[in-house]
Structure formats: C-alpha cells, structure tokens
C-alpha cells in the first residue's frame, strides 16, 4: 500500500512537468540526414578510393586539378596505398557525412569504417569547378 501511495505521490508531483515541453519551442536538431549526393561527387570519390585500393597512381590523378597533381608525388601516393589498401581489401563502408564551403571549394566529408575493427578515418575531398583540389585522410 505504501508503494502505491508513493508512486501516486511521485506521479502527481511530476505530472505538471511532463507536459511543460509541449508549450516550449521544439528542440534544435543537432544532426540532419546528408543531402542528396551528386553523382559526379560520388563518382570522383569512388575513383580516388578505387585507385588507392588498386595502387593506380595514374588513375588517381585523372580528376585532380593541376596544383594537386603537382603536389602529390608517387612516393606520397605509395605511402597512402601501403596504409589504406590492405584495410580496404578487408572491407569497409564509406558513409557520406556532409559538405562544407571553404573559399572557392566545396569540401565533402565521409566516414570510412573498416571491417578490421581498427580506427575509422575521416576522408575529405575538396572540389572546385568539377576538379579535385585536395583529398585528405585523417
């Protein structure tokens, strides 16, 4: 009997607060679903990732701008391949997160989650005028 009384008392005590939020502004969304990804953006990202997995330096450079092409040496590419390709071949999921505006570039972000259970990687691909101006794996 004491338990029922206590439960009733708590219900009556907190009942006014249960509906207090109904009159308040709705909560701010902190996460929104990604906007529809343009096929050209998806294709550019897939080309980069496939080129890394297949150790295809020439293929990697197909859609990049002249500045990025000049800055990315074969040795740098080989370092990325050595770290990434084995994990990619073991299986991974690329999850599109968002796009950001940085000056004249649109930066697209992906989360790379690997089947090996290791750390996820944040991939950033910068586009300007349909060309890839940067690709970073963090």
Written account of the structure:
The chain has a 4-stranded antiparallel sheet. By secondary structure, the protein is α+β, with helices and mostly antiparallel strands. The chain has helices at residues 2-18, 39-53, 57-60, 66-71, 74-89; strands at 92-102, 105-114, 121-128, 131-137. The longest helix has 17 residues, at 2-18. The protein contains 5 helices and 4 strands.
What general form does the structure show?
Answer: globular
Which parts are unreliable, with pLDDT below 50 for 5 consecutive residues or more? 3-22, 26-32
Radius of gyration: 24 Å
CATH class: Alpha Beta
Structural class per helix/strand content? Answer: alpha+beta
Number of strands: 4
Q: What is the CATH fold-level name?
A: Nuclear Transport Factor 2, Chain: A
State the strand order across the main sheet: 1-2-3-4
Structure keywords:
138 residues; four-stranded antiparallel β-sheet; alpha+beta; single chain; Nuclear Transport Factor 2, Chain: A
């Amino acid at each position: 009997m004491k338990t029922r009384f206590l439960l009733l008392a708590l219900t009556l005590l907190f009942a006014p607060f249960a509906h207090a939020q109904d009159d308040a502004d709705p909560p701010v969304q902190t996460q929104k679903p990604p906007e529809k990804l343009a096929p050209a953006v998806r294709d550019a990202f897939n080309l980069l990732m496939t080129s890394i997995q297949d150790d295809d330096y020439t293929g990697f450079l197909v859609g990049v701008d002249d500045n990025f092409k000049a800055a990315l040496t074969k040795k740098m590419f080989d370092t990325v391949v050595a770290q990434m390709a084995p994990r990619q071949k073991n299986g991974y999921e690329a999850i599109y997160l968002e796009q950001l505006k940085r000056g004249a570039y649109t930066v697209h972000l992906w989360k790379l989650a690997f089947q090996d259970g290791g750390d996820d990687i944040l991939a950033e691909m910068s586009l300007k005028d349909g060309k890839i101006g940067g690709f970073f794996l963090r």
